[in-house]
């Protein structure tokens, strides 16, 4: 078997349910997705649809209540530094400088390396994200965008097998956002990291990813549709945006979010099965499928 | 009026006015002595001092000042075991408070951490803490005496250096002063943002590292609030403790002067206790503020 093409991460029927008075409340239902090595996948959906829950399960911060997660051939269900996580708020520890924040992780992962090597590693990633001059400042003295740069540097400095980004640019103004997207792409290209990013920004999803996974509305959120983004890499923003396919892709995503995100493929499939028995029973999903 | 506010005179003037009002009120209530000389039936001259006033035994501000002068002007004098300068007494009290306070912090902080970290520990011990917390130092001291009865540490000359009453005093200060530290530390630990704990989880930090790199720094501002409140209580308790066991110190002096009918010194002691308590609180607030901004 060709290991190069084996998925780095397999999510098989990953589910999350919380117990409630009226039986279990299912947030995410049977989420199945395979990640090829070095693939950049974006998870897009409405707020509260459960996309962050999926990421949190992959990160190991939330326990899945069903299904399995196989990372590099091994089943995992707890957090670890083999998955670098960038949170929506950068989650820097305010009592440590930017450098110390990165070192906290580096020390943990490379405890066998010499102190000098570890410092160099942290310094390297901090300068790559453009914080060469500000690395000894405390988070309180950094702008929101700079803090998120530290968050990205911290995740990359661990040299993880996977990168998980939970709406990393959600709290930034659009200029800073675009800048950081470039920083992220550059680092991603150099490190060839398999990446899962959660966002609700359609343009961001198109510009960054290889595949965009659209999630249906919660509860019982599942994979609604998957779209492959055809643009060649390295991507240049202006070229991507002027490509005629860009608008088509964008419309497809927006159409899904606006019109179809409440339709569950699994239910349509179930109805399809029923349809073969009683043909005239289900006009609504039929229409939805045709519209697709 | 504008100039008045511009020069910020109100910040100085208003407290001064308030002080004068209080002194005036005190002077009105306080009694004053009147010495009368008369010739009695036997032809001898008799001088009698009688006190008049709303509260005739309460010394007036002037009397208080006259009586307190030697204690304030020579604050470190030692004329006898129970006749020392006021700052010397304060120093003795502070030493005792420091010891009891140290015990309170050493015991209280870990208990607070356990309460904050473990729901079960919290459920188990919270009722006990809530019951013990409001108990007055006056109630704890006798228990301390019983608990440490017979304890006696003697120095080379056979003199007792640390006895039952010393142990009971420390016990009382520690157990009364401990609760704010316990409760604030617990709150601080519970308030550690989930984000920070996620960082610890993602990096797979060990328990010890999580404690020292995440939990303690994050809870520190809360802990310091507890430390400050604890110090306030420790200082409050010292007076009661010294009164009961008769140790030299501000509180001991106060009680002894009451028994000696030297009422002016009671007021001196009260003011000293207040001023020192205020200074301690300000000092702790400053330290607390530094940790908060860091």
Overview of this protein structure:
- The complex is a heterodimer of chains A (292) and B (294).
- By secondary structure, chain A is an alpha/beta fold.
- Chain A has a domain at 263-292.
- Helices cover 40% and strands 21% of the residues of chain A.
- Chain A contains 10 helices and 10 strands.
- In chain A, helix 2 crosses helix 3 (115-128).
- Chain A is globular.
- The relative contact order of chain A is 0.15.
- The model of chain A is unreliable at 279-292 (pLDDT under 50).
- Chain B is mostly helical and 294 residues long.
- Helices cover 72% and strands 10% of the residues of chain B.
- Chain B contains 11 helices and 6 strands.
- A two-stranded antiparallel sheet of chain B has the order 1-2. In chain B, strands 3-4 form a two-stranded antiparallel sheet.
- In chain B, helix 4 packs antiparallel against helix 5 (119-132) and helix 9 (207-245) runs parallel beside helix 10.
- The longest helix of chain B is centred in the last third of the chain and has 39 residues, at 207-245.
- The two termini of chain B are 41 Å apart.
- The chains are: A alpha/beta (292), B mainly alpha (294).
- Chain A binds chain B through residues 59-61, 79-81, 83-85, 87, 89, 91, 93, 95, 104-105, 108-109, 158, and chain B through 195-196, 198-199, 201-205, 209, 213-214, 217-218, 220, 294.
